[in-house]
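Aim 2 progress update. The chain analyzed this quarter is reproduced below.
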Amino acid sequence: MADQPSGAEAPRRFLFLDASARTGGNSARLARLAAESSLPEGAEQRWLRLDEHPLPPHRDRRHVGDGRTPEPVGHERTLLDATLAATDLVFVAPLYWYTLPTSAKLYLDHWSGWLRVPGLDFRARMGGATLWGVTALSSSADKAEPMIGTLRLTAEYMGMRWGGVLLGNGTRPGDVLSDERALIAAKSFFAG
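Predicted structure tokens:
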């Protein structure tokens, strides 16, 4: 950051990507609790609902012409810019069919295109950022392994740090607030 005193650390910038199909769901409630109680001092937060920034279907252009992807526009540009500005990227995503909701998966599919935007250097710019997940599920934690694996492997592929996943249990709106284990874990989740 410009005008930072020598030795001063720039504030961390957390981007929370809410991929839930409903507003204020259990994953979002758990993520907000974790943000309120465990973000580092001075950390910035930005919250975006992926449903409010719909993306077009991803088109694989790797073997079409020169394989390059055109500059993103519209909602895709908004998400790209927010992604690149973040030091910490948090997927707030309920477990749907053992993995990420459609909007989160589509967002990740667009990363494949962003890797091929001339001059963007997407992978290099994401390297060193931290990837996190916050999810609510209605079954045992082992059912979240495919989703956790997707996020962890994405971080690994992109040269990002893996922050981990905060899991909470809840089906009906507000149920996660009764999951004492998740509430305790939320209080220190981002501090680690």
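Helices lie at 26-38, 74-85, 102-114, 122-126, 145-158, 180-186. The longest helix spans residues 145-158. These observations will guide the mutagenesis experiments scheduled for the next reporting period.
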